[in-house]
Amino acid sequence: xxxxxxxxxxxxxxxxxxxxxxxxxxxxxxxxxxxxxxxxxxxxxxxxxxxxxxxxxxxxxxxxxxxxxxxxxxxxxxxxxxxxxxxxxxxxxxxxxxxxxxxxxxxxxxxxxxxxxxxxxxxxxxxxxxxxxxxxxxxxxxxxxxxxxxxxxxxxxxxxxxxxxxxxxxxxxxxxxxxxxxxxxxxxxxxxxxxxxxxxxxxxxxxxxxxxxxxxxxxxxxxxxxxxxxxxxx
Length: 234
Ligand SMILES: NC(=O)c1ccc[n+]([C@@H]2O[C@H](COP(=O)([O-])OP(=O)(O)OC[C@H]3O[C@@H](n4cnc5c(N)ncnc54)[C@H](OP(=O)(O)O)[C@@H]3O)[C@@H](O)[C@H]2O)c1
What we know:
The protein is an alpha/beta fold.
């Protein structure tokens, strides 16, 4: 039977590139996003292009009960999860002193609590099997404060903290944990920003780095992947 990767937010951007990379490597994949139509067309595309199966659930990861439904959906497949990529999340620019009220709560829900709860649902089985790899899509904003980073940056610092804690807890249990910290990556998040493509990382490069980290022998773990545009941060 094929290996199984759970990749949240797989219809667009970085998540989509990671989904395509693992699909090309013949993984079956479970993903989620809010837009059902985009999930359906992703399934059609992947299954007609690669030798694999896509399972999906349209959910909002920032809603706890929907994350629980996603975990139950995955358990219902009755298959071990080999790879988990906590990718779903969003960026709203702003500054702590003047961003919209509720910005912190919304970004903590979508960028941190989603990953925390999905991981708590899936990692116990990895730990019991002494096998698995958990990636969390952090950011350069996880290590560097910058104007207009606001609550996004706070949520991404927290997600990096989460990944470090997980690494410490799981290192003796055969489960690898990797934090991915991309700089500006050309996805819909940057729509409207008038900069040449070469100022951005390609989502496919992030996906390749994730797959390469996964491909190491179980004796080694890449704890952090920090990727920047060759020309530096925007
Ligand atoms: N692009 C960058 O420069 C950059 C840099 C560093 C880190 N990151 C991080 O990388 C991750 C992906 O970013 P991206 O730029 O690829 O974003 P994107 O192009 O907007 O894609 C986000 C994906 O996640 C899904 N998603 C978003 N919110 C969701 C929610 N609440 N529940 C379920 N699914 C959700 C989206 O589908 P729906 O809209 O249908 O829900 C979509 O499939 C994020 O965590 C982001 O913070 C991005």
